[in-house]
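no rush on this but wanted to send it before i forget. theres a chain ive been looking at and ive put its sequence and its fold in token form underneath. please have a look and point out which stretches look like helix strand or loop to you. thanks a lot i owe you, the record is right below:
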Amino acid sequence: MTALDQLKQHTTVVADTGDFAAMAQFLPQDATTNPSLILKAVQKPEYQPLFETAVKTHAAESVEDIMDHVLVAFGVEILKIVPGRVSSEVDARLSFDTAASIAKGRRIIALYEAQGISRERILIKLASTWEGIKAAEVLEKEGIHTNLTLMFSLAQAIACADVNVTLISPFVGRITDWFKKQTGTTDYTADTDPGVASVKTIYNYYKKFGIKTQVMGASFRNTAQIIGLAGCDLLTISPDLLATLQEMTDSVPAALNVADAAASDAVKTQYTEAAFRLALNNDAMAIEKLSEGIRQFCIDTEKFAELINAAR
């Protein structure tokens, strides 16, 4: 069996891309997108017709509304390939605006439903800011499922669990990048990788306390990080790493399991807004990577808007 086939025995595999043509060969259950991935996809020749049709059909609407139509158009095509769900991201520029994030989440769901897609197949992605988490709380109560992304700390994960979000996406590679830069260490193994360790800590906390929110490891730099998290509920993986896993025959045992989580030293915690903000502020890696992630998504969203303006 290939490493990818073995991984699928332990974990739900998700394709992390806006390039839906590239995902069919890997047979993922779900797919995730983000502003940067969609920006890359819309600039590829094979996706120009889809992009231009969405833009010209809705040319009289605002750039922000057209952006939603393009996002949903890609999501609809992705759902023709994957049997499960697609994650579609709320505009990163709304990351600190709870009301606007709620409104945007509702709008994205309405656009999907207008295309005949059930909301059960959509995850609304929101940044794991306090405001994003509060928006998710409202959306979940309305039957709109959410995926909280740009997650770098246990505090963010706990706050998400407390409002019953459907799924979280704790990042691996970006955490490791930060520690490599800070420490000068470049030869982390799966056992010493700080990004892998962060997701393990979150997984153990959730499973020890019977939290239903699913954990989906994200942002991988290499296959060792992926294999080090085999057994996680879900893992979202880029096409290039999926291709590498498909070529590998290394053994992939489960690295995470509920029994080990139950025996972990995790301590039940709850956060008020003030306590959450302090915990995040005091975690230099988490606050820096969260800010950087939002900033980059905002930059790519602005570039996306420029492409739309040029096309209509």
Observations:
- The CA atoms of residues 55 and 310 lie 10 Å apart.
- The longest strand covers residues 122-127.
- The mean pLDDT is 97.
